[in-house]
User: Which sequence fits this backbone?
């Protein structure tokens, strides 16, 4: 059974295994937001499989760069009244 946790609880599990870890909660949330680590949405929570997160970190993968800007970003658009 997968160990599904929120980002903060996953962070605490990492710190329990390695108290001197340089991984931050902000970095875990960045991995979740960028899609590098899959999540399951339960209500307002995003749950991550801790084992997949640890495997991703153990593989030494880098967080993906930010995605391309949204379509229409920075362009003027007409407002119909």
Assistant:
């Amino acid at each position: 059974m997968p160990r599904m946790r929120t980002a903060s609880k996953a962070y605490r599990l990492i710190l329990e295994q390695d108290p001197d870890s340089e991984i931050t909660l902000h970095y875990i949330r960045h991995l979740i937001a960028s899609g590098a680590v899959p999540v399951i949405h339960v209500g307002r929570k995003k749950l991550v499989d801790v084992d997949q997160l640890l495997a991703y970190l153990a593989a030494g993968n880098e967080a993906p760069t930010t995605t391309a800007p949204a379509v229409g970003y920075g362009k003027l658009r007409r407002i119909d009244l």
